[in-house]
Structure formats: C-alpha cells, structure tokens
Amino acid sequence: MPDALKALTIPDLAEMKANDKKIVALTAYDASFARILDEAGVDLVLVGDSLGMVVQGQPTTLPVTLSDMVYHTRCAARGVRRAILAVDMPFASYSGPAQAIDSAARLIRAGAHMVKLEGGQKRAETVRALVEQSIPVCGHLGLLPQSVHQVGGYLVQGKDEKAAQAILQDAIVLQEAGASLLVLECVPATLAAEITAALDIPTIGIGAGPDCSGQILVLYDMLGITPGKRPRFSRNFLQGVEDIPSAIRAYVEDVRAGRFPTSEHSF
C-alpha cells in the first residue's frame, strides 16, 4: 500500500482489495469538505449527482445537469490531494458511446480521475468506449437513482433469485468491458458478498452489507444533516463527537476495522 501522503491511483484500489484492506469512500461537492475527507484518510471522494437532492433541494437526482457536475467537480478537485476523485455522469449524459466520451472528457478536464455511470449490460459498449479513451470507469448496479421512476421508487433490488442473478451477470459484464470499480447500492448483503467474490475489481457498497471491498455514504447522511428521514443503511457519525473532522475520522476507522456497516445497516 502506498505511503499515506502519496496520491492514490486506481490500481491501488485493486491492490487494496487483493490485500483485504477496506476502501473508504464518501461524497463531497465542494473544496472545503473534499479537503476534510482527504485529510481524514478517505480513499475515494465521489462528486455524486446526489448533490441534486442534498445541495439543490431537488426531489431526485434527475434534474442535475452535466454543467452542474462540471462545476462541483472543479470545486472538489481543489480540495483533494491524496484521494481518487470519482464523478457521477448525470442523467441523459451518456445515452451512447459518443455522448458519453464527450461528457466524460468535460469531467476529466474539470479534475475527475474516474467517472461513474449507472446500468449493466446495456452500458457495456459505452464502458468499452470510455476505457479505450483511457477514461477510468466505475459501474453502479442495484438501486439506480437515475431510474427511480422506472422501478417505482428507492427500493431494494435483487431480492429474488432471478433478479439477483441478473445483477451478478451485469457485474461480470461491466468488469469484462473494462470497469475498474463497481458500486452496489441497496442489494441484499448475501448478493453483494457473492458479487464481490466473483469479481477481480473492487466493489463499494452502500446499503449492501459488510462484505464489499469498501463502503460509501452520502456525506450529508452520515453527518445527520440530510432533510427528512436518514436512510436505514446510514449512520450519524457526528453524534457523540465534537466536530465534523472527528466524525469523518470515526467513519474511516470504523470502515477500515469492519465495524461499519453491521447487520443493522444491511438488507
């Protein structure tokens, strides 16, 4: 594992999985929070399209534009020194390979090290096209927030055998297409463990149990400041500590030690 002060690379994440060292990830949308996360030892900072809900006050992530993501990427990039900076490609910005390359290029120029997109086999051609342009890709399976209207809400995915096998096959296809990382959101812990064991690339769980290669939460959720009900799979790490940096360090330590998530935060 590289020195703690050295900038991480995407191959380092694969090495962490191989060495059974948990990958710690969180979202951030500006320079100040990105710097706090970076200094606390977070390995991957995600500029998520979740900013539509927690920053802009939108009901879903769907209104977020590519220009929004470029702006917030530039901000967060100024706060990152060690961590890998991944960025969501927003809704309708990667409808085909050509559009995806143009969109991803804007995000990479803004400071992203990796782009994340939602979907399985139907995204394989797009993932290949991005990788051929030397753009690292993180896949996203399970609950897909950009498909919330199609699936009928923010629901756990892969609960029956047929659905679980479809997600597993999607994961394998994304790896074969060249994805370097895979987020698994709101899937049963047993399924996430099976996918993690089947892949060479790391998995990052959010509501996917303790056996993924790493964990991610929305920053506002884990600080207890998201309006409304906090997701079941999250935890308020600010409770009982004196300040935000302490909360972030507590999260890093608990993920590394395997103390978070527990069955309480899993499906």
Automatic annotation (TrEMBL):
Q: Which NCBIfam families match?
A: panB, PRK00311.1
Q: What does this protein do?
A: Catalyzes the reversible reaction in which hydroxymethyl group from 5,10-methylenetetrahydrofolate is transferred onto alpha-ketoisovalerate to form ketopantoate.
What broad class describes the main subcellular location of this protein? cytoplasm
Keyword check for Transferase, yes or no: yes
Cite the entry's keywords alphabetically. Cytoplasm, Magnesium, Metal-binding, Pantothenate biosynthesis, Transferase
Q: What's the family? A: Belongs to the PanB family.
The root-end lineage is: Bacteria, Pseudomonadati, Pseudomonadota, Gammaproteobacteria, Methylococcales
- Taken from the record, one Pfam family name reads Pantoate_transf
Q: Which CDD domains match?
A: KPHMT-like
How is this protein named in the record?
Answer: 3-methyl-2-oxobutanoate hydroxymethyltransferase
Against InterPro entries, the record matches this protein to: Pantoate_hydroxy_MeTrfase (IPR003700), Pyrv/PenolPyrv_kinase-like_dom (IPR015813), Pyrv_kinase-like_dom_sf (IPR040442)
The record's active-site residues are 185
Q: Which domain of life is it from?
A: Bacteria
Q: Which residues bind 3-methyl-2-oxobutanoate?
A: 49-50, 88, 116
What does the note under cofactor report? Answer: Binds 1 Mg(2+) ion per subunit.
Q: Where does the record place it?
A: Cytoplasm
Named in its record, the pathway it takes part in is:
Cofactor biosynthesis; (R)-pantothenate biosynthesis; (R)-pantoate from 3-methyl-2-oxobutanoate: step 1/2
Cite the binding residues for Mg(2+): 49, 88, 118
